[in-house]
Amino acid sequence: MADDDRDDNRRPDPDALLALAEKDRRGKLTVFLGAAPGVGKTYAMLTRAGRLKAEGADIVVGLAETHGRSETAALLDGLEALPRTRVAHRGRVLEEFDLDGALARHPRIVVVDELAHSNPEGSRHPKRHQDIEELIAAGIDVWTALNIQHLESLADLVAQITGVTVRERVPDVVLKKADEVVLVDLPPTELIERLKEGKVYLPESASRAVDRFFRLGNLTALRELALRRTADRVDDQMVDYLKQNAIEGPWATGERLLVCVGPDDLSEKVVRVASRLASGLNAPWLVVSIERADREVETTVRLQRMEGLFRLAEQLGAETRRVVGNDFVEEILKLARREHATQIVIGARRHHGWTRFYSPSLPDALSRRAAGLGVYFVTPDKKEKLPVPTRLSPPGVASFRQSALIAVAFTGAMAAVGKMIDMVAELPNISLLFLLAVLGAAVMGGYVSAFIAAVLSALAYNFFFIDPLHTFTITAPHEVFALVVFLTVAIIAGGFASRIKEQAEVARVRATALQSLYDFSRKLSTTAKADDAIWVAVSHLQASLKRNIVLLLPDKSDLKVAAVWPPDTELDVTDFTAARWTRDKQEQAGFGTGTLPNSRFEFRPLMGPHGLVGVCGIQQTDVRLDINAERALSAILDQTAIALDRARLSEASLEQAARLEGERYREALLSSISHDLRTPLATIMGAVTSLRQLGDKMTPESRVDLLQSIEEEGSRMSRFVGNLLDMTRIEAGTLKPKSDWVDVSDVVQSAVERARKYFPGRLIETGIAPDLPLVEGDSVLLGQVLFNLLDNAVKYGGDEPVNVYARRDGADVLISVTDLGKGIPPAEIDRIFEKFYRRGKPDGRSPGTGLGLSIARGFVEAMGGKIHAESPALKKKGTRIVIRFPAGDKTKACKTP
Amino acid sequence: MTNERILVVDDEPQIQRFLRPALKAAGYDVVEAATGGEALKAVATAAPDLVILDLGLPDMDGKEVIASLRGWTTIPIIILSARERESEKIAALDLGADDYIEKPFGIGELTARIRNALRHRERSEAAPATLSTDGLVIDTVRRLVSRDDEAVRLTPKEYDLLTLLARHAGRVVTHKTLLTSVWGPAHGEDLHYLRVFIGQLRQKIERDPTHPAIVRTEPGVGYRLVVDQE
């Protein structure tokens, strides 16, 4: 066992090989990494390009910033340079890298300088690294240059070191995914030297920062960062190599970080610190936010903060996760165990703020309960303000004016009412009216409103009702007292009111979500087929999430699109690859995940009780789904999975049942045919052998009876064989009825005669209209049809008479044969024309062959007529078979012989 | 002497129609029944000597009729059945039916089976000490088997097989009966034993083992030891 395990581990990791194969189809990215501007990245890049060009490589320069330096510009000679595209931006014309031109030219290698560059608004991609990604995806190798300070995870560190906030940033993933990193190094002293000689180009606007930036300390720190980053990469490559070649470790530290964040401003620092920690430890890291289960409504601000935070974490190479729970510590530890995390990174602050997530007890509780786990606390910097790129506006500002209006209105109204009452009767406790105003304002406008109303009320009470009237004097103790009471009421009532409002909102949102889910499951419950369930799910998801939805089902070894909504939604190759990943790994992939994030869709597996039943793709936008939509989504997906699983099972069982039924039917059929043939045969053979061997010992009557039975059975067999042959002709399509003019009354009469001879003692009554028109058809076939119907009617009609009618019905001639037997249950009425269907047991015990009616139908339809059955026919019993033929044209009939 | 009485159970009137005069002419009295219920009643009241039973009856399965008859009587039962219903035949024989005949059949075949069954009924009261057929003599008292007056040496299993077939001479013995009585109840499904031992037996007792005349194969059902028709 142990040996097997070791063997297994030594085999090359398939994931590593897969990633390698994926890379083979893409272009390669080479990053020339430097510690600061002026170290000579562009120079190094162009020198190398020139060398390759001389060797005959297909290399072009998409964009190179020479900054007017002649030694660099000289390198461009002999290199093919792509023309730049001109973009109008805020009244200026900018020369930019021409992405489409590069794609059209499609060289093997393209040089695109300045990886951290931001494209002007309106470009296809906002950032140059995205342009480069597209080039690589198109299979073009790209060389580019980057200064270490532009790396996202180092942004705050760089700001701390240099005091300069870098705005153009590159996600760490880009550098991490680069196939080659070339470190362009220059000792800081030399760099400063070059700067002094004017060899480093810096824009005018930046000149103020230059002095601050190009200091020996700064440059040394940046150089260290660049060197360390490169060393990390070399380490990664080593690990990759070891994995690909199945060389045994120890290559991984085995560390795994769980990073807890919330919508507070400390969390951004937590993410950055964790990112550096993770890259230092070479460990994967998972960023998780825990949402309170009882908090249904997230404010937009909090949601935006969380989205921003998650985006940052993903850019830095983290996996992200949202968890719902009440006991934060418990949830964190649960997740840590499940994800095999070895360290927890969490923000800790000692004073209040966003206490919901980082109450002072949380770090303590965590360190108390996190047995065996390392807990890393990130504390806020109090002196330095962190450079936060996007400041979010605080909530409630917009509604201040509204709150004030509400307060003024309530106070004004109450003051007026008070004045009116004052005119009628003088009340000592008129101040109570203003409590109403405060309360009203609190209910309508919340805290702010209540506060304003309290102050206004105190003033108004003072002004209008306390002597001296129409002056503000807060001297008497009862006036101060009134103000205090008003304010207290305002605080309490405002708190209540806003909580009630929040609860009402919670209830509303919950009710809407529940209603929506209820609608969905009701719709689903009415669908038994997988196909219907899929469409219900897709349209419902689209309606509730307002995103394009696609649902894929496993199809043999691949996936096929089962439903999309809206119908014009299309999947490209990347989307499909992401969907397949989801199917294979049964985990999320595509947009917003760690796998194939450039797919426009986020794919989620549909897991039924018996494994994966499908994959659902949700086309995502920059705005992530909020927690409520997220919950609705997973509920709907769960329901859909169960419905699909159920449908699949029921389809499988139906198929199985149909197959069994078919087998039983065939068996019954065979035994019925063999019985129908064997019984007359057995009679004939038995009678013949009896006559031959024992005939002389029999009475003459017995001999005659035996001979007669031979004759009867012979004709019975011949009829059965005839029926079988007719049926075969109908089925083979070789039945060619003659097209004569047939006198229906004639045919009916002769069929009835024949039946009377066959079934002596049975009453057959006829009613034939005198002026029946001729019909076009085959009189022999029609006679056979009628005889079959009569045969049937006699067999199933009990002892009651059988009635045959023929009459004209509009443009048709109508013939009916009616018996008064038990009739046919409504469920079976459509089956009686089926081959080998007989009323009674299907084991051959009923009198008929099960062919009569199906032959009748075959003949009638071959002659262009129609046949159907009605039951009950008369007095709640019996069966009537009705045949219709179009009446022939008399004049035409005369012309045709 | 009084004629032996035969109960014919068949729901097809045509079959009854020719069996009645034919069996009468062969010297039997005939009682008829069209359903299983009637058949059970008739056996109890009319005291027939033999039952001819069609397995397909409208009211109950022929096998049920056999099972309830065998609960209290050893009356010989001959089954009428179709060829393709093999498993049904075997089940009926295992339930205690004495023999079977396939439809369609000649009357001579049927009367031969009837005679065999009736003779067995007489014999079972006093088991015969010897049986001879086609020059083969089986002496169960001295445990000797001879072929044209020459002793045949049989192994104990072969002897057991032969005597078991001889006790049911003229009638079919199912594979299962042979296997369980000779080899024991655990070997009811070991058909290959039978194939081997019957082959060996035929080598020793048949004139032409490739065209066996004494131990006949009943395909899918069992074996039958053929006796001389007198």
TrEMBL record, chain A:
Domain Histidine kinase: 672-889
EC number(s) given by UniProt: 2.7.13.3
Catalysed reactions, as listed in the record: ATP + protein L-histidine = ADP + protein N-phospho-L-histidine
Principal location listed in the UniProt entry: membrane
GO MF term set: kinase activity
Any one Pfam family match given in the protein's UniProt record, by short name: HisKA
Descriptive protein name: histidine kinase
UniProtKB/TrEMBL annotation, chain B:
Name by which UniProt lists this protein: Response regulator
OmpR/PhoB-type domain residues: 128-227
Residue ranges: DNA binding: 128-227
Chain positions found as 4-aspartylphosphate: D54
InterPro entries: CheY-like_superfamily (IPR011006), OmpR/PhoB-type_DNA-bd (IPR001867), Sig_transdc_resp-reg_receiver (IPR001789), WalR-like (IPR039420), WH-like_DNA-bd_sf (IPR036388)
The keyword Phosphoprotein appears for this protein: yes
Domain of life: Bacteria
One protein family per Pfam: Response_reg
Keyword annotations: DNA-binding, Phosphoprotein
Organism per entry: Shinella lacus
Domain (Response regulatory) ranges: 5-118
Tagged with keyword Cytoplasm: no
